[in-house]
Design goal:
mainly alpha, 2 domains
Length: about 220
C-alpha cells in the first residue's frame, strides 16, 4: 500500500462530504452540481484525489481537463483545495501524549517515526505480529498506537481527541463511520459526564463532519 493511498479518496464519493453541515462556509460553492461534476471527473479518468492533484500540477493537462469536462477552473481548484485541507498529514509519534519512550526507540530502527509509517507497517494482523517481533513491543500496545494513528487521519482529530474516542469504544475510522451523528453526540456527552474526564465532548458539527469523511476514507488498517 503506497503512502499516497492514505489520501486516495474516490472522486465519486466526494459529494458525501460536500454538504452545508459538513463543509466550511467558504466551500459551499462546491455543493451545487457536486454529483454531476464528480461523475464527469470520474468519466474523464480522474478516479481518486491523487489523480486530481497530479492533473492540477500540470497546467497543460489541467486546461485539457477543463475542456473535456466543462467544469470551471475555479470549481476544480476549490475541490482540490478541500481535498488537500483534509488530506492525511503524518503526525510525529514523539508528540503523542504519554507515549512510551522505549516504544519510540524500538520503532526508529524500522524507520517508523510518524503515524503514516506506522499505519503502513501495521496494516494487517500478520504485519503487526512481525513488527511486534522485530521491536519487542507488545501487540496490544502496537494496536493501540495504530488505532490512534487511524483516528488521527480524520479532519481535526489530534491525539488527545483520538484517545477520547478510543476510551469511549469508537476506536477506529470504520467504527466512527458507522455512527449516527445525533446518537453519537448524546453518547459522548454522557461518556464525558460519567467518566468525569477533563476532555470535552465533540461539538455536533465536528461529529457530523468526522462521520462523513470517515465514510469515504480508504481503509488504512484492518483490525
Amino acid at each position: 500500500m503506497p503512502v499516497k493511498e492514505l489520501n486516495d479518496f474516490k472522486i465519486k464519493d466526494i459529494p458525501t462530504v460536500l454538504r452545508p453541515e459538513t463543509l466550511m462556509e467558504g466551500y459551499w460553492s462546491l455543493i451545487p452540481n457536486a454529483t454531476a461534476n464528480c461523475n464527469r471527473l470520474h468519466a474523464a479518468g480522474i478516479k481518486k484525489a491523487t489523480d486530481l492533484w497530479k492533473i492540477i500540477d500540470n497546467p497543460q493537462e489541467f486546461q485539457s481537463l477543463i475542456k473535456k469536462t466543462g467544469i470551471p477552473r475555479e470549481y476544480l481548484q476549490r475541490l482540490s483545495g478541500i481535498l488537500t485541507f483534509n488530506k492525511f498529514k503524518p503526525f510525529p509519534l514523539k508528540k503523542i501524549e504519554n507515549i512510551n519512550p522505549q516504544h519510540l526507540k524500538s520503532l526508529e530502527p524500522e524507520g517508523i517515526k510518524e503515524t503514516g509509517a506506522l499505519l503502513l507497517a501495521g496494516r494487517t494482523k500478520e504485519m503487526r505480529k512481525e513488527l511486534a517481533h522485530k521491536t519487542a513491543i507488545p501487540e496490544s500496545d502496537l494496536e493501540y498506537l495504530l488505532k490512534l494513528a487511524d483516528l488521527m487521519r480524520m479532519p481535526g482529530v489530534k491525539n488527545i481527541r483520538a484517545k477520547l474516542y478510543i476510551d469511549a469504544g469508537i476506536d477506529c475510522v470504520a467504527k466512527f463511520a458507522a455512527q449516527q451523528p445525533d446518537q453519537m453526540r448524546v453518547f459522548m456527552l454522557e461518556f464525558v459526564k460519567k467518566t468525569k474526564t477533563t476532555r470535552t465532548a465533540p461539538l455536533p458539527k465536528e461529529i457530523t463532519t468526522g462521520i462523513a469523511w470517515a465514510k469515504i476514507m480508504p481503509v488504512a488498517v484492518i483490525f
